[in-house]
Amino acid sequence: MLFGRTTLSKFVIEHTRGQHSEMGALLIDVAAAVKTISAQVGKGALSGVSGALDVTNIQGEVQKKIDVLANEALLRHCEWGGQLAGMASEEMDTPYQIPEQFPRGRYLLIFDPLDGSSNSDVNVSVGTIFSIFSRFTAGDAEDADFLRPGTEQVAAGYAIYGPCTMLVLTVGTGTHGFTLDRESGNFILTHPDIRVPTETREFAINSSNERFWEPPVQRYVSECKAGKSGVRGADFNMRWIASMVAEVHRILMRGGIFMYPKDNKDPAKPGRLRLMYEANPMAMLIEQAGGAASTGRQRILDVAPEELHQRVPVILGSREEVERLVRYHQEYDTGADRPFVSPLFSERSLFRD
Ligand code: F6P
């Protein structure tokens, strides 16, 4: 069916009427940037922008040419329209000031231009994550204007560059998925009102960090791995793509839990993922789809940011699983849980003496 489909433009115009009507134009600019990034990512090695630059970003991570290009795409597509007071990005140490020649608006755009970019060289799905806040006044944003809890986001979304490109968006009225029709160049609403299934038998975690996890996470994962023979009484699958966008997308489509929890690998870092442009937008999308998102000890959207690039533990996905793991944290913190016993050292284990 060629006509009568809901395009992203139609959707945002209809869903941002009234208080946030200017945000519709901003979302259309974000979508334009996403199409540019999608075209580049889709060229793979033919793009001429694969490989690393000889620089690291504020996170201490090696910047790739495609990271820089994706960052530029978002800045250029979104700076001119008069909706923004400022932008901030994973790839920039400090917020970006809207150039003199452009009008200022009342929104703030925060993004991770290419999340999971280490995967782009191996042709695995990567994505762009973004978050929008409104400010109550127009004019240039100060750095402190960006430090707002996730509950104040007015929109959040991600684009996933996989076998097809999709944009998944919330403006606070559910989570909706749009698929890029490469022939017409339009994003078409294909997944209205996504709901995260409540029951799940799939978990995602980088288990090479197991020895650094806190006991509640060790307990949860060991119970999943024990499967039918353990307290869960059911077998679980494990997945790890090392691309948060792909992981969250799978969870929105078929349920599951994603964890990048607090660990003691590097005591200076309370988690791996960034609050403002990874955890907050994903938490809003997941909550709007009926799931839950927590640090283990606090709802992610309630975390009061202290720094633009701050890290936070992330546990998100199907509500019942997230709530179970939050309960394990509470039991551990209050001393009410049973001590964790590794299956390797249990009664019938090889290592028991
Ligand atoms: O923050 C970037 C990111 O690539 C996420 O997309 C992903 O979930 C995580 O880091 C992967 O971490 P690791 O390299 O520990 O598997």
Description:
It is a single chain. A hairpin with a 5-residue loop joins β1 and β2. α4 (215-226) crosses α7 (319-333). The protein has 353 residues and is an alpha+beta fold. The protein has helices at residues 8-15, 21-43, 65-78, 215-226, 244-254, 275-288, 319-333, and strands spanning 52-56, 62-64, 84-89, 107-115, 126-134, 153-161, 165-170, 176-181, 186-191, 202-204, 237-239, 257-260, 273-274, 292-294, 311-312, 314-317. Strands 3-4-5-6-7-8-9 form a 7-stranded mixed beta sheet, with helices on both faces. Strands 11-10-12-16-14 form a 5-stranded mixed beta sheet, with helices on both faces. Strands 1-2 form a two-stranded antiparallel sheet. The relative contact order is 0.12. It is globular. It folds into 2 domains: 8-191, Fructose-1,6-Bisphosphatase, Chain A, domain 1 (2-Layer Sandwich); 202-334, D-Maltodextrin-Binding Protein, domain 2 (3-Layer(aba) Sandwich). It has 7 helices and 16 strands. It binds 6-O-phosphono-beta-D-fructofuranose (F6P). The site of 6-O-phosphono-beta-D-fructofuranose (F6P) has 10 residues, from loops.
